[in-house]
Amino acid sequence: MPENLTSSRTPSPRTPAWFARPAARSWTCAPAPADARDFHASLPGYAPTPLTELPALAAELNVGRVFVKDESSRLGLPAFKALGASWAVRRVLAERTTAGGPGAADPVTLVTATDGNHGRAVARMSRLLGQRAHVFVGHGVHPEAVAAIAAEGAEITRVAGTYDEAVRRAAGAAAAPDAVLVQDTAWPGYERIPAWIVEGYATLCAEIDEQLALARAGTPGLVAVPVGVGSLAQAVVTHYRSRRDGRAPALLAVEPEAAAGLAASLAAGRPVTVVTGGTTMAGLNCGTVSHLAWPALRDGLDAAVTVTDADGARAAADLASLGVPSGPCGAASLAGVRAALTGDGADARRAALGLGPASVLVLLSTEGPAANPHTLSGITTPH
Description:
15% strand; globular; 12 strands
């Protein structure tokens, strides 16, 4: 285990694994390009998603203020994934146009694998921009999520195996002529398009900065982010660790116990693939951390915690009762903060995160509870 990484486990099933890296707040990196924010702002129907303050959670967690970033309706889709998919597809198509040559203007098949929301976002953008989509869906994805992807006009291929197997199948299919893989995880040799997806997610962080300023809340003391392959977490780490104002929040990653690839990798000090089990947090049911995300997560995350499906269900129900519609993946951030800040050993975990009774917390609720009925039409690629 690396010298700068601490870990603790208890035998109680109600106390998930916890990993902390005290040096994370001193690590810095280059900022993300700002182009994606301007692109998103140009899209019809774009608006910042709500940042909702929940005083009841602040009282429960014994902190100053708690805000939840509500991604239940983002560009007409029920999750934040539209930000990365739209920017990446825009870059792919612009590159083809610039390259020219025979067939450059012909439709292309955009291929991806998904646990639900990313595939639908790629399919939506493909349909709106006159392209084709082929989406590989792993075992365990809810039938309603598969139906929503198909409703966007995408070709669906069901894969009997895990998300990782669906990614392998999608990569193979994308080798066909006039096909491009638009995947939100990276591996050696496949990094450029996943990097564009991460750039797209930076819009969410920029909105939070503006919304906290309006709320006179300043820089948060902690930001909690659910983790699947880690691309959103990479965007969050990049955003906050590229600041040069000396105000570095603690960053907490949250995973399902049944799919804790990041926690296992942090414990080992190197990327580790885990065999995933069944979880209601389907969008987080990923056993391999993105090759592109790993260095930033290793060096820039303060802590990682795992949560159970029961933890996530309770958190989703509590958010709903407070007016924030959230699915199991989105509610994982609240479940993770509860696991970190309450129960046996909470004082030590609070100290590791640098939190006190006046701290401001931001929880990323990355998806809504079900398919969103709203649609977005008329998107065109800006000139």
